Amino acid sequence: xxxxxxxxxxxxxxxxxxxxxxxxxxxxxxxxxxxxxxxxxxxxxxxxxxxxxxxxxxxxxxxxxxxxxxxxxxxxxxxxxxxxxxxxxxxxxxxxxxxxxxxxxxxxxxxxxxxxxxxxxxxxxxxxxxxxxxxxxxxxxxxxxxxxxxxxxxxxxxxxxxxxxxxxxxxxxxxxxxxxxxxxxxxxxxxxxxxxxxxxxxxxxxxxxxxxxxxxxxxxxxxxxxxxxxxxxxxxxxxxxxxxxxxxxxxxxxxxxxxxxxxxxxxxxxxxxxxxxxxxxxxxxxxxxxxxxxxxxxxxxxxxxxxxxxxxxxxxxxxxxxxxxxxxxxxxxxxxxxxxxxxxxxxxxxxxxxx
Length: 355
Description:
alpha+beta; six-stranded mixed beta sheet; four-stranded mixed beta sheet; 11 helices
């Protein structure tokens, strides 16, 4: 016997389309399959993702986990209808935090929440996530798509990512950082995924639309240029860690910029001296500073200003570390040194940013 009620409502009429979700899952399965790696070879669709640490080659591993989002950069993706790179940012923000611990990212899961699920938008987002996982060498083993009408506007969405990595016991970073250690900067691809509330405010002040030519990037619209995805530093850093024992710490330059992130790997007796003249500042930061009237100290605390990752290398091994990074495809730049600290600012600067 079937029960029926006059004027009975359905989940779809409430704004949640289960069929659309199932259609999206079918379309993303090949994308997920392309991220398989030793230790992860199961299909998505179960209640949990699996990973075999022994199959990945670990003997006595310590697990390292990180989660993050992409902040209000996602709003630019929504407004420009460009959705296939924001997933790279999502992966990057998580796996770059894993590698700074000296761990290899192994697996990734995503959470995608939206007001109304448009399967093609979801597929484009997962394309970016899968690409980010391939760049990081980790497997996309699952995720969650949530359609929540009334909580999000129809076309709005937000993303969260979760990564797990591992390192053999005794190899985790940071090691003790000592006065005299050398700071080696790895270039960023642009703003990465921090400071976008200020970026969007500056764009508003400029009066430019997202489809206007970018003043700092020839051949791109403003929206396209600002959506340049966050660099993923995992593979070159893993190569450098294996090639030399001279890396004492790594620092991912995210929210809080240089003054807030660098002290996270230092003890109270040391600080750093940054040579701002040595930092290759991409044109985008000059445009942001000049258009928004942003002073240098605010730039340094809000943006990466051209350096997305800092390597702390032992002074006598700095050349070997630099060579290993170049061999792995990086363009490392010496940007400062570790100094004794007895008071005042932990991050001292010399020179000026070229903005």
